[in-house]
Inverse folding.
């Protein structure tokens, strides 16, 4: 079967024609507490050991079919092989997350001085929404996840 998206959600999977043209939106979900000093210097008051750079991921899509979200509950752990590529300077960097590895498509590539990779994230379900637009026969869905 020809894959229609690079996105992988394990263990629920992504049925054909349910995730073409997806939009993945990443937000930082850390514990930083930014404040300004009397000299207007911006500082972070959070405990450095607790200030992990975790992600909140929102996936949205409109397609012919719905993803396999039946039975998914808040707090459920999913392994997400993202369609979005992260990028780092090859000579001085390394991936901050493990690369995706469940597809035949390469999850890592290099262009010039930069390495691009699709990350694999362990995430928990925060919420999801499903809606159907009958006149257009559009299945609309969104999935909100927080990195573990």
């Amino acid at each position: 079967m020809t894959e229609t998206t690079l996105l992988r959600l394990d263990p629920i999977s992504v049925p054909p024609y349910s995730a073409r043209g997806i939009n993945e939106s990443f937000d930082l979900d850390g514990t930083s507490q930014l404040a300004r000093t009397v000299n207007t210097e911006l500082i972070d008051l959070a405990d450095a050991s607790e200030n992990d750079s975790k992600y909140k991921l929102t996936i949205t899509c409109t397609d012919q079919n719905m993803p396999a979200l039946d039975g998914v509950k808040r707090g459920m752990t999913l392994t997400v092989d993202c369609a979005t590529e992260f990028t780092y300077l090859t000579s001085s960097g390394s991936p901050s997350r493990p690369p995706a590895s469940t597809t035949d498509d390469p999850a890592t590539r290099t262009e010039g001085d930069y390495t691009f990779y699709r990350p694999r994230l362990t995430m928990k379900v925060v919420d999801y929404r499903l809606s159907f637009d009958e006149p257009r026969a559009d299945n609309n869905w969104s999935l909100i996840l927080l990195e573990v």
Q: What stands out?
A: The chain has one domain: 8-147.
